[in-house]
Amino acid sequence: MTPKSAAAAARATVYGYPRQGKGRELKKAIEGYWKGRVDADALRTTATELRRTNWQQLTDAGIHEVPTGDFSYYDHVLDTSVMVGAIPERHRTAVELHALDGYFAMARGTQDVAPLEMTKWFDTNYHYLVPELGPDTVFTTNSTKQVAELKEALALGLTARPVLVGPVTYLLLAKPAPGVSADFDPLTLLDRLLPVYAEVLADLRAAGAEWVQLDEPALVQDRTPAELNATTRTYRDLGALTDRPKLLVASYFDRLGEALPVLAKAPVEGLALDFTESAAANLDDLAAVGGLPGKRLVAGVVNGRNVWVNDLTKSLATLGTLLSLADRVDVAASCSLLHVPLDAAAERDIEPQILRWLAFARQKTAEIVTLAKGLAQGTDTIAAELAANRADLASRAGSALTRDPAVRARAAAVTDTDTRRSRPYDERTTAQRAHLGLPPLPTTTIGSFPQTAELRTSRADLRARRIDTAGYEERIKAEIGEVISFQEKTGLDVLVHGEPERNDMVQYFAEQLTGYLATQHGWVQSYGTRYVRPPILAGDLSRPEPMTVRWTTYAQSLTSRPVKGMLTGPVTMLAWSFVRDDQPLGDTARQVALALRDEVNDLEAAGTSVIQVDEPALRETLPLRAADREAYLAWATEAFRLTTAGVRPETQVHTHMCYAEFGDIVQAIDDLDADVISLEAARSHMQVARELAEHGYPREAGPGVYDIHSPRVPSTAEAAALLRKGLEAIPAERLWVNPDCGLKTRGWPETRASLENLVAAARTVREELAGS
Questions:
Q1: What are phi and psi of 201, to 5 degrees?
Q2: Shortest CA distance to 501 belongs to which of 469, 464, 476, 482?
Q3: What does the alpha-carbon distance between residue 115 and residue 105 come to, in Å, rounded to a whole number?
Q4: Nearest Cα to 657, choosing from 570, 532, 572, 564?
Q5: Angle, nearest 10°, between helix axes 144-155 and 76-83?
Q6: Pairing with 605, which of 37, 153, 372, 407 sits 20 to 30 Å away (CA)?
Q7: What gap in Å lies between CA 596 and CA 344, rounded to an integer?
């Protein structure tokens, strides 16, 4: 096909769409099901309606081919485990008795059965359920969900393309099951898995699929020769099948690199590539392999992970270059639109001028359709859209919101001294232990306590002016008083105020910092039914006044035990926001760090002796390619130290991280120079404690003994067993006892019971140590 005919054939598509619905109907239906207020049929009806609404919105916007199979009750990787029959033995009975309840048990656990481990989906804030595999794993085909959703779309008269997690990525994301040697490589199961994928593909073809998309984002990471050989074998075998639809292999989040020649030569009909991340490299790589003659190329030129309007002229230039490199070029977002909110038009509190700079899922869909039209029919047909887009881009570039000379001057004046504590750790820890007087194996929590319906009602009442500020603050004081009282009675050693005033650990701070925009309806799925509203970092950032000092000092006034000041760190503030794309991330991180440094210093001046600066996103934001990591970790660790280095030696600095693969960044954790780190460890059976020990991590650490993403209450014996496992790696004088993460999403009954068991476990192990 010539470039001219390739352009004429251009179509618009997407890889996935937000699942929750305009009013988060899916969240409400699922949580209603868990609480027994909604039955299974009603839940399925809600899900069916949401899928149809999504497909209709996409079709009405001009999308030619809608995705199916991307919709999930909890997580699409968990759906894949169900599809291939990779059900852990401990969950098989539950799945056989009731498939839906068994599915949720795998995701959340029950009182008797632990859930699957959960971790971050590449470098996003979306969490997936980690497949558990072993040498005895037997895969079986269950394509019921995938076939049913395809048939739903086809029955509506739509052109639909099922989307599946590819077999290579599925195995690369998996871990050895409990009891299986850590040396076991799930990729050795490839020959068992491929026949299952072959059966699924045949089932989808029989149901009417012309194309099936196989997502292989793991191939944008550095892959070994063995992994690339496995990829070659996978797509040679799947491509050789006669009873299958056409195959579109999709990658995103970075360049394919060394995997591109493998897939370009594979007997598949199409590739989907990300041309927003490392766009120039992907273009060069594609040209170097001779393009994709005879194949379909789906070009991800609209950023599916951020909320700024696309530069349509620039994207059209990229698409024009691609026309000579493939038989057919279609237009898409760079990845699933799952990672952005649904509709910017729903926002009423953002100035109209600024709103023009933003594109959520529905606006991005319109951009994709516009680009496909311009590519197929010529730029004259989209002249008005191009003119409006140029005006929007110029408006943002010229806005006073984006540049504050004072902020930039302060950031430019930072020196290395500003990022170093005044005393080394060995001297600090002696001063801190004398100052705090804590027992061995000190107990604490991560920060937040349950956000009750009463708290949410109080915030709603304040927004609706049903109560005034004074009335709202009295309710917050009462909640803090209850949280402090409970912690004292339970026997926790370092307390927290519970964060009742905070809606979200990033949004709360963003609303008090210059340069940020907050949304009312910008919900994005983080995991399961947990949705967040990431704020939008639009301009230079500073802190007009203290943000946390008042409530922390109030809590401290209620107790003689130390109360931690709680802040969100600079990297996490960026990672869990939609960050500006008009300057390097490191420059933005330094601005955030300086604002937080002011808050840390004010907390210390107000008498706070323990200050926790959470950085759960430090690993999440790690670049997918090893070559890019050193530069990232340099500015990321500098930003943390800039935030915390101004305090006295006796002030103890904590940090917290959760639900990521920390073994990759242990040196960076060391480089933070925090006095204490708490980490998620319960689901991964203390793996991180072993990784810290192998590194020789010299500071104090609290690997979690209570999995807060499950409703189950760990017994005292269970928590004590995990604690003993932690002691195998970390000496008692440096080991803390804490949950995996904050308790915001849990209910009070399970929180009370779990923390009481946690404290009892610490006492039990202290007595064992004293008697040994």
A1: -60, -40
A2: 476
A3: 6
A4: 572
A5: 110
A6: 407
A7: 29
Question: Cα–Cα distances in Å, from 346 out to 227, 360, 385, 395?
Answer: 45, 10, 21, 21
Name the β-bridge partners of 550: none
- Using alpha carbons, list the distances in angstroms from residue 22 to 16, 76, 94, 373: 16, 20, 32, 27
Report d(CA 613, CA 564) in Å as an integer: 10
How far is Cα 668 from Cα 153, in angstroms, rounded to an integer? Answer: 47
Q: Which two tokens stand for residue 299?
A: 């070009």
Rounded CA gap, 344 and 287, in Å? Answer: 37
- As a whole number of angstroms, the distance between CA 297 and CA 275 comes to 11
Per-residue model confidence (pLDDT) at position 23: 95
pLDDT at 497: 97
Q: Which residues pair with 127 in a beta bridge?
A: 120
Provide the pairing of β-strand 211-215 with 160-165. parallel
Q: What angle do CA 228, 232, 233 make, to 5 degrees?
A: 115
Pick the closest to residue 581 from 253, 251, 273, 276 (CA basis).
276
> How many CA within 13 A on the CB side of residue 116?
33
| Confidence at 660, pLDDT banded by 50, 70, 90 | low
Among this protein's residues, is 127 annotated catalytic? no
Region of 474 on the Ramachandran plot (φ > 0 left; ψ -120 to 50 alpha; else beta)? alpha
DSSP structural state of residue 310: P
Half-sphere exposure of 242 (CA within 13 A, CB side): 0
Residues 6+ apart with CB under 8 A from 438: 493, 494
What pTM value is reported for the model?
0.90
Q: In whole angstroms, what is the distance from residue 74 CA to residue 128 CA? A: 9
* Alpha helix ranges (H) inside 491-563: 507-510, 549-556
Amino acid at 100: L
Go through the chain and tell me how many residues it has.
Answer: 772
Q: Please tell me which residue in 339, 521, 654, 709 is annotated as part of the active site.
A: 709
User: Over the stretch 355-396, which tens digit does the pLDDT of each residue have?
Assistant: 999 999 999 999 999 999 999 999 999 999 999 999 999 999
CA distances from 339 to 18, 30, 284, 415, 475 (A): 7, 20, 27, 36, 35
Q: Which residues contact 431 (CB under 8 A, 6 or more apart)?
A: 423, 649, 650
